[in-house]
Specification:
Bound molecules: flavin mononucleotide
Helix content: 25-40%
CATH class of the largest domain: Alpha Beta
CATH superfamily of the largest domain: CoaB-like
Shape: elongated
Amino acid sequence: MGAANSHSPGSVLTGKRIVLGVSGSIAAFKAVALASELVKAGAVVDVVMTPAATRFVQPLSFEAITHRPVVSDLFADQGRSIAHVSLGVDANVLVVAPATADCLAGLALGFGHDALLATALSSRAPLLLAPAMETLMYEHPATQQNLETLRRRGAIVIEPAHGRLASGRSGRGRMAEPVQIVEALRTILGRTRDLADRRIVVTAGGTREPIDPVRFIGNHSSGKMGVAIAEAARDRGARVLLIVGAVSVPLPPGVEVQQVTTTLDLKAAVEAAIRDADVLVMAAAVADFRVEQVASDKIKRTGDEFTLHLIPNPDILASIAAAPLVKVGFAAETHDLLTNAQQKLVKKNVDLIVANDVTAPGSGFGTDTNQVSFIDRDGIEDLPLLSKREVADRLLDRVLQLLRQRSSEIPSLVGRESG
Ligand SMILES: Cc1cc2nc3c(=O)[nH]c(=O)nc-3n(C[C@H](O)[C@H](O)[C@H](O)COP(=O)(O)O)c2cc1C
């Protein structure tokens, strides 16, 4: 079952502190195999079980594999070691596999009535969840809402698979296989701090073009995608400047924020910001036109027709030189998605276009998920429907590749410029 390279010394899992939370599902036996794979890969694994989980698998099974005590009773050591706090604080990652419907609800609501929930509350490490349950439980709006809440907070969810369930029925709800969970952990731990000291400028939200002192032309952008990118870049160690127009989501702590209103404001802010930036990600929804003559007083109703004269705004991305800056653009389209995105790639001279059909289910304005394609000069990568945070991390993986390519090209660029 285990990946052959999991034994290699120096693997990303070596020496990492992994807290494995196990809740009361029939799939708890798979967590024993997962613990075994993680230990073989060199991780230090602490298992925290809910009382219900101990009805399915004995703590001894985990202790024999991890050679560490299992925490299953919040009150067992009578307050001597406060394991539920120290484990959470010291963890590099917290993985809950299997995650029951009940456990997901507790995590989403912030309950702390058992050792697993209390550990999760004390932890600020990345949280990976592998739900396992009957299809009806999984598809219940309560469970889906709890998953949505957890995703919004940054949790990564490995979707359960379709298959035969404990009840004998078939459907979605089978916990992901341990090998998939190990892969996800490698990705999460490998990403950590890989953008350390990079300066990343992200634009988010919608611009507003004034018509008169009380009216404007705006758009439906919520800013969620750009904010998710800023948060993901922050978590990976980047110094982030988030330039925001109108947004309907809270602005993230730990990033520098600059507010703008119009497209011209945004252009000026971006031009100033990129002077010392490595990466520009333009996720803002920018108005292509502005009102030529903004009225100084509120325009009054007269009963007659009224015509606004609009003039084109500058194309911010196209006006900025590429290399050494890594430029990423978004193409929110409603038709001919790939053709339009490919044209943008060339016209705006960007390194990567993230294209999404804003009319597709689960994509576009205000949703917490997005289904996008990455388009670069080498081709197209279609991604599945993912949380916006997961899209952000996939995007930053591509940005990192581009940065690495750039740094191997830079000496020749510098040589050309100075020559
Ligand atoms: C045989 C059996 C199997 C169960 N399997 C699951 C399951 O796969 N997923 C789930 O969400 N709940 C399952 N349950 C219900 C949970 O064990 C129950 O909701 C429990 O309170 C979960 O507690 P915990 O989240 O604290 O571990 C199962 C119950 C039984 C009796």
